[in-house]
Amino acid sequence: MDFPxxxxxxxxxxxxxxxIDDPYLSYSETLTVYNGRVLLTEVPNREYRVEVxxxxxxxxxxxxxxxxxxxxxxxxxxxxxxxxxxxEGKSLTFTYQGEGASFFPASRIWIKRQGNMVIETLQGxxxxxxxxxxxxxxxxxECERVTKRCIEITNWCRQATSDYExxxxxxxxxxxxxxxxxxxxxxxxxxxxxxxxxxxKENKTVYxxxxxxxxxxxxxEAYEGFNILxxxxxxxxxxxxxxxxEGLIPEKxxxxxxxxxxxxxxxxxxxx
Length: 272
Description:
By secondary structure, the protein is α+β, with helices and mostly antiparallel strands. It folds into four domains: 3-104, no CATH class; 110-171; 174-221, YefM-like fold, CATH 3.40.1620; 224-269, no CATH class. The chain has helices at residues 122-171, 182-188; strands spanning 12-15, 25-32, 37-39, 43-44, 51-53, 60-61, 71-75, 80-83, 91-103, 110-114, 117-121, 174-175, 196-200, 205-209, 214-219, 225-231, 241-244, 251-257, 266-269. Strands 1, 2, 4, 5 and 9 form a five-stranded antiparallel beta sheet that branches. A four-stranded mixed beta sheet has the order 3-8-7-6, with no helix packed on it. It is rod-shaped, with a radius of gyration of 49 Å. Residues 119-146 form a coiled coil.
């Protein structure tokens, strides 16, 4: 404890003279008994005494002796009124002439001691509380930063999800049985849903419904021909037509329908 520092933290007093120029201040205040006592707003003048009223009792001030149910004592130095424990929690009215008050610094109020040695003061407790408040505010600020970042990430995820849903909605393909002509699409699928995909055999084109129109999305390989595997070993992929020959090295070919010879790498047959 820094006792030299106490000289820079003095007790302050405001004292009235009780004269015409500096009269006492009249008080009539209602206060509650707590821990058997009441702290008045100001120090009362001893000459004018303190009057207590309330709780349907006739209150009597005493200076010595035991405090009975309707008795009270006044500390005219500190401005404290003492009561019997039976009056705990009662609200009473106090009338007196206030002389002023003395204000003690928190550094002069002890809360822990060892014998006559003060080991902790109210100021120390206040300092610890202020430090704790600073740390709490720092943690609150950090939590607010984390919360803000979480909100930003959540918004980003929502936007990414929205973008993904948009992409899925505009690119997914739900294949439906093929039709022969484009006109057949209109009659076969009069109420299509977004993503429905239909191949037209006549022009070997695939169309996808985008919610408004049937959009050409490319050539249909399914009607360009089919895959064939020239190999001595049966293929794992069941999408191939397998031509077995023990003397062949595995080779993929494409069988197409054509009236002219196709490009290299394709097997073709001509329709009469």
